[in-house]
Design goal:
The structure is a single chain. This protein is globular. A five-stranded mixed β-sheet has the order 2-1-3-4-5. Helices cover about 50% and strands about 15% of the residues. The chain is an alpha/beta fold and about 150 residues long. It is built from eight helices and five strands. The longest helix has 19 residues. Strand 1 and strand 2 form a beta hairpin. It starts with a helix and ends with a helix.
């Protein structure tokens, strides 16, 4: 169930996605939040940094810096797109208990695995998230093919 805070923090993830698109990358953004405070924010920077791993969630975690294990256990990660297996692995590794996803129509990541491990998933079904991905797939399909391995 989406709360007002969820909508507010998902909007911050959308801002990150828009920034990534403006930089010439994949429009996926993420923020890591604990107790109403953004600890880290990021967006997919694979293109911009020539990175093989810098998806939006990974960038948000990296930008949060090193945190104690108990901090992650009280966080929610907001992402504009369903988390891929790599990002889901990081969510599980750090025991982040809750994920709010903007959309999962463009790509449905490792949601079953996350649920099976007890992670709460909230799907916003957000039109802005869907529109960003649709635009990228229409205008730069080669980016998506490279990033997601299609």
């Amino acid at each position: 169930m989406m709360t007002d805070d969820d909508r507010r923090f998902l909007a911050e993830a959308v801002k990150e996605a828009e920034l990534g698109w403006a930089e010439g990358g994949i429009p996926v953004g993420s923020v890591l939040v604990k107790d109403g405070e953004i600890l880290g924010r990021g967006h997919n920077r694979r293109q911009q940094n020539g990175s093989v791993t810098l998806h939006g969630e990974m960038d948000a975690l990296e930008n949060a810096g090193r945190l104690r294990a108990d901090v992650y256990k009280g966080c929610t990660i907001y992402t504009t797109l369903s988390p891929c297996p790599m990002c889901s692995g990081a969510i599980l590794l750090y025991q982040i208990p809750r994920v709010v996803m903007g959309e999962n129509v463009s790509f449905q990541g490792d949601e079953e695995h996350l649920r099976a491990k007890g992670v709460e998933l909230v799907l916003a079904d957000d039109p802005a998230c869907k529109a960003l991905m649709a635009r990228m797939m229409a205008e730069r399909p080669e980016l998506w093919a490279e990033d997601i391995g299609v």
